[in-house]
Structure formats: C-alpha cells, structure tokens
Design brief:
By secondary structure, this protein is an alpha+beta fold. The protein folds into 2 domains: 3-92; 111-340, BirA Bifunctional Protein, domain 2. It contains 11 helices and 10 strands. The protein has helices spanning 3-19, 23-34, 39-46, 53-92, 111-125, 139-142, 181-189, 229-244, 291-296, 313-321, 334-337, and strands at residues 129-130, 136-138, 162-166, 172-175, 194-203, 214-224, 249-258, 261-271, 281-289, 305-312. A 7-stranded mixed beta sheet has the order 1-5-6-10-9-8-7, with helices on both faces.
Length: 341
C-alpha cells in the first residue's frame, strides 16, 4: 500500500470522526480504523508477509505515522464532544445568583435531653450530686435490695427484659426498670449526708400513648440524720417552680405504696391559672426510705433517715411543652423536633 492510500485512510477517519454526533457513534467509527479488524490494524498485520526486512520497516513507519494522525483526530473529536456536553449542562443547570442562599439547618438537643440537662442544672444548684450507673443490672440491686424479694407481688408492676446470662455471683441480669438501683450502689460507696439525683434510661414491657418500652427517669435521694417530708415537699416544690418557670404551682402528697419507701406518697401538682389550671396532675412517686433499704445500703436505720422520689423525664417534658402523645418523642419527625430548637 502506498502513501496515497494511507493519506486516504487518514482523511476518511478524520471525516468520519468529525461527523460523529455523540460518543457512541465516535467509538463505532474508531473501530473501523483502529479496532481489531480496522483498516490500519489490518495493514500492520500484513507486514509480516513482507519478506524483505527493509521494506517491512519502511512501510511500518508510514503506517504508524498514519495511526498517530488518526488517534490525534479521534482525541480532538472526543474533547469537542465532551466540551459540548459540559456547555450544555452548564446552560441547563445555570445558577441564578440573585436567589437567596440556602442556609444549613442547625441541630439541637432532643426535647427529652433538654429536660434532662435542665433537671441536672436545677438540682445541682441546690447541692445535689449527679450520679450515673449501669443500665444492665442484677436482680438483687433492681429488686431484692429495694425490698422486693423474689415472688414479691410488686415485681409484677415492673415487668422487664431479662438477659440469658448471670453475673459472677450467679444473680440474674436484666435491663433496669428504674434508676433506684443506683441509690443502693451510691449509698454503699458514700457516707451520709447523701444528696444526689440519678438520671438515666430505664426499660419496661409497656407501650402505648403514655408509656414506652424505653424511657428516661430521674430519681432523687437525700439521707441524713434529720430529714422529713417537709424537706421533701420543699425541695420538690422548688424544683417544679424552677422547671416550669411558674410560681402558681401547688403540690400535694397523696398516700400510695412503694416497696422501697415507708410511708409512700404520690406527688401531684396543679397550676392555679393557664393551661391545665385546676387539674391535679400526678408528677412523681416518693416516700421515706424504707428501713430494709437503709440496711442494704449498710446504714443504721435508727440513726439515719431520708427521702427518695422518682419522676419520668418524658412525663415532665410532655407537661412542659403540652405534648399529648409520648410516641412522638421517638418517631424522629423533624417537623415535630424543630419546634424545640
């Protein structure tokens, strides 16, 4: 094949590439000239039939030069098509710089966590320590040490989730049903006076509009030599007024039963005006620490006395913000959560 034939192949390739309107057509045209059965590839294969090495070498140089020219034309057309696509995208996706910018949304604490922090701040300001503890508890700390021995009827009030294992002492393990076990743990490590709150997650087999299998709770404990219900009422009333930021809150004690306190009482609150005015609302359980519990704390029940109380954080949050359904706290609906930013 002579130089004129090579020039014709190069010219045909350039014309074919220039007429290719898209990448697919261009690659198909490339195969005609540079593919496994392309015109230039076939010419290179035919050189092996040339017996004279000098002729083979000379023609090989010419064919390779033509191949480089075809590849250069191919790359130019590839770039032209890519540039055209980019310009088309830039035109179709043009940004109107006169539009206002999009602001990044600002996250915030979950409303229940806001309540958690608020409670810690209020009680810490009146001298209560903040104590945390394990969510996986032993049967002894969760029930027995709190005056609810095995087969005690009060255990049925707090059905929970047991684990298929035991601790090193052979005691059953479970997800704690309240943060009261920390009263025992902390009191055994600390000498009176003890003045602490125990916020944390707890678990019970319960689920409806006002109950959840997982919920948050805060318990308080104050043990000293001369503590009475008057101290309990004063502390809790002061807490409620600071938490709700209202002075028109009345508090009453209603007799009740809890195995770990004696006597025991439900704490009710009432607003004198505004939302829920005139209605008594149950807000907490409380009572004087039972002598059996004091003994399990390694304390002399004839020397020390104290009170304990427990409140649900979700309950307090629902009353503070007027939320009617507990489940909305766990549905991750941003329309609901943005109200608390």
């Amino acid at each position: 094949m002579g130089s004129l034939d090579l020039k014709r192949i190069v010219a045909d390739a350039q014309r074919a590439f220039d007429n290719a309107a898209d990448t697919v057509t261009l690659e198909n045209e490339k195969a005609r000239f540079l593919g496994k059965t392309g015109a230039l590839t076939e010419l290179l294969k035919s050189l092996g039939k040339q017996l004279d090495p000098q002729v083979r070498k000379s023609k090989g140089v010419c064919i390779n030069i033509a191949k480089l020219q075809v590849e250069a034309a191919l790359n130019r057309r590839r770039k032209a098509i890519a540039d055209a696509l980019m310009n088309q995208r830039l035109t179709s996706e043009e940004v109107d710089v006169t539009l206002p910018g999009r602001c990044s949304s600002v996250g915030s604490l979950h409303p229940v966590m806001q309540t958690w922090e608020r409670i810690e701040q209020i009680f810490n300001s009146i001298g209560f320590d903040i104590v945390d503890g394990p969510e996986i508890e032993t049967d002894w700390y969760n029930f027995t040490a709190l005056n609810s021995p095995e087969n005690h009827p009060a255990r049925s009030m707090q059905d929970t989730f047991y684990l298929n294992k035991k601790d090193e002492n052979g005691r059953a393990l479970l997800l704690r049903t309240h943060t009261s076990p920390m009263q025992i743990r902390y009191a055994k490590m600390t000498k009176p006076p003890i003045k602490s709150i125990f916020p944390g997650r707890t678990y019970r087999v319960d689920s409806n509009a006002t109950h959840s299998p997982m919920f948050n709770q805060v318990e308080g404990l104050w043990i000293d030599k001369n503590i009475s219900f008057a101290d309990l009422k004063g502390v809790y009333t002061d807490f409620l007024r600071k938490f709700f930021e209202r002075k028109d809150i009345l508090v009453r004690f209603r007799p009740s039963y809890f195995p770990f306190t004696e006597p025991s009482a439900e704490i009710d609150m009432r607003f004198e005006c505004g939302r829920n005015a005139g209605r008594w609302l149950e807000i907490s359980g409380s009572g004087q620490v039972h002598p059996h519990v004091l003994r399990n704390m390694n304390l002399d029940h004839q020397r020390y006395i104290g009170f304990a109380f427990g409140s649900g954080l979700e309950r307090l949050t629902m009353l503070r913000y007027g939320v009617d359904d507990l489940r909305t706290f766990f549905e991750s609906d941003l329309r609901f959560l943005r109200q608390f930013v």
